[in-house]
Amino acid sequence: MSEKIYIFDTTLRDGEQSPGATMNTEEKKRLARQLDNLGVDVIEAGFPAASEGDFEAVKEISKVVENAQVAALCRASDADIDRGFEAIKGARYPRIHTFIATSDIHMQHKLGMSREEVIAAIKKSVSRAREYTHNVEFSAEDASRSDWDFLVQVVETAIDAGATTINIPDTVGYAQPEEFGDLIRYLKKNVKNIDNAILSVHCHNDLGLATANTLAGIRAGARQVEVTLCGIGERAGNTALEEVVMALHVRNSYYGFETNIKKELLYPACRLLSMIIGMPIPAYKAIIGGNAFAHEAGIHQHGVLKNRLTYEIMTPESIGRPPSELVLGKHSGRHACKQQLENLGYKLTPEQLDKVFKAVKDLADKKKQIFLEDLEALVLEEIYRIPDKYKLKYLCSISGNMAIPTATLKMEIDGMDEQISEFGVGPVDAVFNAISKLIGRQPKLVKFSINAITGGTDAQGEVTVILEEGNKTAIGRGSDPDIIVASAKAYINALNRLARKQEEKVWAKV
Ligand code: KIV
Ligand code: ZN
Predict the structure, then answer these.
(1) How large is the C-alpha radius of gyration of the chain?
(2) Superfamily of domain 3-277
(3) Position in ligand 1 atom list of the atom nearest CA 226
């Protein structure tokens, strides 16, 4: 029997700190359910002291997660810990995760605290957390740049005060695999009470070493890893969950560890995240990228045709990656639709299923073949759109080499219908001008990209835009067989996100 590695997922907290990856509460709940189904052991739901929105989201997530522990991140202060527990107290298995920086550079320049003051804060905050729950994690922020002997003292203090998990972050992605492994071994050897806690590692990817450092940490004695789907996170991101899980699985004879993760749900979980945050998965991304199982070189293709194992160390099916096949058509029924959605990991309520099924029928009138990717796009459009301040009701666009590109559209703005016609340099410009004028806002378009969701000239277009207004940016995503309509949907989606961000009051940042 292999020993178990606990998977602590922080997509909803550290992942959400990734530029442009903000999610609303509904989207977070959806992702939390998917992570729960995936089999992660802990879901870090957020940082409740950050804002009213974060607090509410953590509270709501706590209600929907059935199996995993739900963690709330808190700074080492009574106020944060009280607020944190208030948010997760409805969870089946709540965990308080408190942290403070322990490197000289952070203590001196960020906290303005001495080593003694930091030790006192650890004692106080972990003890406070223990008044609420036995499940307390302590993180020594910037551990990899901290003095090793001071870190021994820090970890000993946290365990004495009652921490049951000790997390060692490589906060700035500075560590090297062997060195990081040595640090974990040093702590295992020198912290007197180390056997009373589980050691955890949390790595950032600034030098592209997050997965390597995490695996080195496991080899050295860590039994919990902190990871995110697709590796999203601050700056260059965090350790990618799917990379660590598949490394442990494919190389089980080397590592000798197992996880609880249902590997066939890895791809659907990563796709769902990518759809929610509107960021496509890069083609070259390990495990889940579009090219991860594509064999281009003739010699590889030849080998794979004879025996897949010549060039494939795992199969696409093992991570739940279905071949892009026709799944539904004009005559498919509600049951077939439900079945396909469940295969993708979506368990919808009957009302949600009705909505998606109607959208499938509408799409099938325009496009004969509906692929898995189409189905996913419809779920996102119909179910996971954020509650809209601005809605598109009607759009007519004229363009051509002898026409002045014109857009006529009707929108619902805060419940009132309004309409307008506008010109532009091209049809997309005309649509964006019309929308901006109608709602009285002029955000800067920072990025516009368009992809065909599937093959074929009747494929749905998937448009992603990034808008900037003041010091806020937002991503929007829209899909439709008509690429001008898809562009309008993406633009309006980003405007809705911008509006939400502007309404939200931020109290604190990690
Ligand atoms: O990277 C880091 O140090 C963190 C901690 C707050 C755990 O995210
Ligand atoms: Zn982090």
Answers:
(1) 24
(2) Aldolase class I (3.20.20.70)
(3) 7
